[in-house]
Amino acid sequence: MKIPSLSVIKKEMSHLRQDELIEVLTTLAKYSKENKELLNYLLFEADFESNYIEKIKVELDEQFAELRVYHPHLLKKQLQKIARILKKNIKYSGIKQTEIELLIYFCLKMIEVKVNFHRYTVMINLLKRQFARIQKVIGELDEDLQNDYNREVDLIQEYVGVEAD
C-alpha cells in the first residue's frame, strides 16, 4: 500500500468538518505515546516556549538527581535515556534557541555529575556529540544570539577538550 504525500493528506484534511478532524486527531493520539506528546506540545506548550523550556529543565533536574553515579554501566544507560528524551522534546519544539538552551543545560548538568567521564569512552562521546550539535545549531543563529551562548559553550568545550569549528 502506497502512503500518500503530506500535501495530499493535508488537502484531504481540509475537507473534513471540525468534529471529524477532532476524531481523526484523537485516533492518531491513541496509537502512539509520541503522537500524544506532540499534540500536547502543540495544543498547550507551543505558545509558551519559555515555560516549556523550564518544564524540560525541571524534568532533567529530576532525572539527574536519580543518577546512580557509582555504577558506570547504569550511569551510561541513564545518561543515554536522558539524551533520548531530550532529543524528542527538542524535536517537538523545532525552535533553534530552545534546542541550544536545552542542549547546553544537559551538557552543564552532565559536567556537574561528579564522575570523570574521560575514563569512560561512551560517556565522553555522548557529551562530545551533544557539544557538536550545539556548535552546529549555534552556527545557524545570528551573531548576537551566538554571543549570548558563548560563555556556556566555552565551559563545555574546555571540559570536552575539543577545538571549535
Listing every helix as H and every strand as E from the N terminus to the C terminus, the arrangement reads HHHHHHHH
Integer average pLDDT: 89
Sheet with most strands: none
Shape: elongated
Q: DSSP helix count?
A: 8
Commentary on this structure:
The longest helix has 22 residues, at 72-93. The protein is 78% helix and 0% strand. Helix 5 (72-93) packs antiparallel against helix 6 (96-112) and helix 6 (96-112) packs antiparallel against helix 7. It has 165 residues and is mainly alpha-helical. The model has no long low-confidence stretch (mean pLDDT 89). The chain has helices at residues 6-14, 18-30, 33-45, 49-65, 72-93, 96-112, 121-139, 143-160. It has a domain at 48-160.
What is the compact description of this entry?
The protein has 165 residues and is mainly alpha-helical.
Main features:
8 helices; 165 residues; mainly alpha
Fold topology:
Elements: H1 6-14, H2 18-30, H3 33-45, H4 49-65, H5 72-93, H6 96-112, H7 121-139, H8 143-160
Helix pairs in contact: 4-5, 4-6, 5-6, 6-7, 6-8, 7-8
